[in-house]
Design a protein that fits this description.
By secondary structure, the chain is of the alpha/beta class. It is 42% helix and 14% strand. The chain is built from 20 helices and 15 strands. Strands 3-4-5-2-6-7-1-8 form an 8-stranded mixed sheet, sandwiched between helices. Strands 9-15-12-11-10-13-14 form a 7-stranded mixed sheet. The C terminus is likely disordered.
Amino acid sequence: MSKNQIVEKIMRLPKQTEESLLDAFAVLQIEEDRRSMDRYVRWIRAEAKKLRTARMYDLIRQTYMFAGQYNFDDFMIAMEWNREPKARFWLPRRKVLEGKHGIATRIQNFMDDPDALFLGFSQPPGTGKTTIIKFLLAYIIGMEPKSANMYISYSDGMTRMLLESVRSMLTDTAEYCFHEIFPGLGEPDISAEYKTISYRRPGDFPTLGLVSMSGSVTGRTRANRFLVTDDLVKNKEEARSPERLEKLFSDYTATLTTRMIGDNVKQIMLGTRWSSYDPLGRMEDAHGGDPRYTFIAIPVWDENEQSNFEYDHPDRYTTEKIRDIKNTIDSADFECLFMQHGIEKEGLAFPADGLRYYNGILPDGEPDNIVFANDVAWGGGDSLSMPIGFVYGEDVYIHDWIFDRRDKSVTKPRVIAKILAHKIKMGQTEANNGGEEYSDDVYRILRQEYGYSINMSHKKAPTNMAKLTRIEQHAPTIRNFYFRDASCRDDDYRKAMAELTSFSFTSKNLHDDAADSLAMMAGYIFGGQKIVTVARRPF
């Protein structure tokens, strides 16, 4: 009977006992392909929790020590088993970092995939990415002590700090359980002078060599399994210099990657996005469509402006804290550092501090016209963007905005409701991929079901290149629009403004719906025959 069959037989028992679970775990521990046993390990752990005895608590502990040899998530839990709860890094953050974002699992999947070559991983400062890398380096050393690996950061200070942290994880048995997870390894050879940790023979390249970008890598270390880089960009000044970024990327491709030996080396690049031209941005531009290259970017908050890093620990980002940060730092810095959207400040088309605002109260008197422009979304993460402009002479107040990623069954009733609520007089819908049908249907419902008359039209959407040209053409007009200030925006308006103020002419934009719909409106209002002034009714 195979080991799998033995455990399956135990699992079919009507009731599990301490002895049956201990027997099942004993069988698993002699299985060579331990990853294939993972399902059974988790079953044993779950059943042991139900019994709630001291022996079963110890069994649960053993399952983590066992699974920590092949599962990064379990490894981090097992490593900190003996630490005081307040001193632990992973468990207080795990519900968010793993439960919400799947960070440990995504890293493990990359490591297990024989075809994967590159993992780009970025998240905001202070969210634990460097600490995760400390655990990862210890994990790599335990799994493959005879391999050669490299860690590179921007400064000697950073590499010294990493060396001391990893040394502590491998040797401090009071704090960490490394030698219970990987029994029999003994103490590694550690050189503070050369910043190396090794289980290999003297004279061989070390198991881990830590190098700074300012130091020399020639002859000292190589990587035949993992090449890990962390925050290669030193600071904002370096990030704002195209020449320095070009040299940095050249150093990475021409110097660091030449330290790789063989065809099985995996690259892991960590960082906080500083620029569209930083190494992470350059790699994504070059390899973004290649399935062997994975890019993970976790912004500080989600599309609803709710924190992505609010875990049960004082070192967290609450939504309120993020709002304070956003209101106190430069908008381009916020997009780069906190939203992981590498942009160039000089290339921002509509920087937040360059727009005009009002407090949500329109000027006295009736507007000359009330107009909408509707850029309909058809999947791919795009949003239906429908700004609503109140026109007073040459001034346009963007008084309301629909900005919604949901399908037409949701957005169409919203569009109709806004037209009726604001008594909109005219509007234009972009006729792309069914936009003409969308517009006609809205018009029909307004006329037949509500008896409402409106001047509506639709216009064929430009190509992507023509779209950028249109946005650039109407950018001066858009900058003269009046937008609600931050204190009087609803969720849709806030999302639209966040996208608008991060739109760039010099770097790749994830979405351009906000900017494009405003360009459509500018062309509709001020574009030749589309004059908006209409005669007021005498009644």
